[in-house]
Please model this.
Amino acid sequence: MTADEVHDKEGFIKLLAQMREELRTGAKTWENTSLDDFLEAMSAWVNDWQWPVATNPWTHAAKLMQAATRYE
Model:
């Protein structure tokens, strides 16, 4: 599931479950696997974000979560 496929609470919950499973099984595509690195990347992504927020807040939150897995 991608962030663009998240449109509601249920989709967001599914995305979080998917992300948790990815992390549990090794998170091969993640750059930020520690909570510290993940939160630092999340903060940096929010700070650097310059485009309008997605009109759907669930989609935007999903993009934030996925970005934090790899944002430098």
Q: What stands out?
A: The two ends are 22 Å apart (CA to CA). The chain has a mean pLDDT of 93. The chain has one domain: 3-68.
